[in-house]
Design a protein that fits this description.
- With 209 residues, the chain is mainly beta.
- The protein contains 2 helices and 14 strands.
- The N and C termini lie far apart (52 Å).
């Protein structure tokens, strides 16, 4: 069976219980229509997919996204899978947005568990990307707005081991911390960092930002 969507063609097959795409290779540029107006994307996405239950294994190769001038990600390389309601990133290399790190992540039911390891993490730039994507989402309907609102913000736990971290006006070096987030409220535990060369500081008590 040939399926054409967003100017991309993939070939699948029906089995007795599900629909399967044994292999596909698409241009990430076609996904720009799913991003905010004016955004551009490039690179390749390869993988397999199936329904009932929905499963997918994707490999990103030099995928890049530009949401606007100076705001985007230059390279995404690595594996992303979806199974049993969970999205998993394995050794996903993120370069761009003034950042360079590797992401290992599991997302299930709106909660995240993962680790970020690398040379640089610019939290300000990544939050700007998140805000740009959220601002482009359709406004809720009247019925949706009258329903109980889901809390906005990230919930999960992360280990961060980064040579340099930029957050607000602070620039920190050799940062290691355990992050606990609940609806966007962040608590930092076991925070160890270095500043001005060899000076190292360890904060035993959690820090709130």
């Amino acid at each position: 069976v040939k399926v054409v969507s967003l100017d991309q063609t993939i070939h699948g097959r029906f089995t007795e219980t599900r629909f399967e795409v044994p292999q596909f290779d698409i241009g990430a540029g076609a996904l720009a229509v799913l991003l905010p107006e004016g955004a551009k994307a490039g690179g390749r996405i390869r993988g397999t997919a199936a329904t009932q239950p929905v499963e997918a294994d994707l490999t990103l190769e030099n995928v890049n996204v530009a949401l606007s001038e100076g705001l985007g990600v230059d390279q995404l390389n690595g594996a992303i899978s979806y199974r049993d309601g969970a999205v998993t990133c394995k050794a996903l290399i993120v370069r761009g947005a003034d950042s360079d790190f590797t992401l290992d992540l599991v997302s299930r039911g709106g909660k995240y568990t993962g680790a970020l390891t690398g040379k640089r993490l610019n939290v300000n730039e990544l939050l700007a990307i998140k805000d740009k994507l959220q601002a482009a989402q359709p406004a809720p309907s009247a019925n949706a707005s009258s329903a109980p609102q889901t809390p906005v913000g990230i919930t999960g736990t992360f280990d961060i081991n980064m040579a340099n971290v930029v957050f607000r006006k602070a620039q920190l070096g050799n940062v290691f911390t355990n992050v606990n987030a609940l609806n966007g409220d962040v608590e930092l535990g076991n925070l160890t960092l270095a500043s001005h060369g060899a000076l190292r500081r360890k904060i035993a008590a959690p820090a709130h930002v």
